[in-house]
Amino acid sequence: MQHADEEEDINKVLRYFSYEHFYVIYCKFWELDTDHDFLIDKENLIRYGNHALTYRIVDRVFSQVARKFTSKAEGKMGYEDFVYFILSEEDKSSEPSLEYWFKCIDLDGNGILTRNEMQFFYEEQLHRMECMAQEPVLFEDILCQIIDMIGPEDESYITLHDLKGCKLSGSVFNILFNLNKFMAFETRDPFLIRQRENPTLTDWDRFAHREYIRLSMEEDVEDASNGSAEVWDESLEAPF
């Protein structure tokens, strides 16, 4: 409280509360909640991030295996449920996020991710790549890449402990069910990324800041277009 009180710009205090973060989460929820009943169904959520997620992972989110919804409406998530989802989706480096997505991929709930479970989710990614005329990356190659990235104790399966001990764990989940982030990961330039990124910020902080700027610019454009008629009326009085 003292730290927040001493800082003039509350948006600089990211550990406790940020208006930017709230604004981004609320706007994202509002964009998906087309009928504005403060509830989101599967068809709403599949549009998240420009249709970045697969149907299979959205089904798992709505199975509530990772976290029970607080929403009382069957088959729908409320605002609080969406907050947990978006924080998990946009910052896969955090432990709560790793636990969230691990439970989603662990289809039989036995505490390990097997080749078959990962292949089940990757199949849809592969199909989407083919539909978009992208060069498909076969699962065998992806599995080798995942094993190299994580370095699990036993290469026949991956545990939550393995994931928590690796900085690249978030990318594994993107490979399995987020096509946009998977493609960005495949074409990344690690040197440029290190140059641009502030190491003190989390993935969520960076995402929220980018989105806040984008949303603010959209709002400014909308305000300008709404005010254009008034500006035009005044200009009619100007002498020629």
From TrEMBL:
Any one cellular-component term (Gene Ontology): protein phosphatase type 2A complex
GO molecular function, one term: protein phosphatase regulator activity
Alphabetic keyword roster: Calcium
Keyword Calcium annotated: yes
Domain of life: Eukaryota
Entries under SUPFAM superfamilies matching the protein: EF-hand
Residue span(s) of domain EF-hand: 93-128
Name of the protein this chain belongs to: EF-hand domain-containing protein
Originating organism: Salix udensis
Highest classification ranks of the organism: Eukaryota, Viridiplantae, Streptophyta, Embryophyta, Tracheophyta
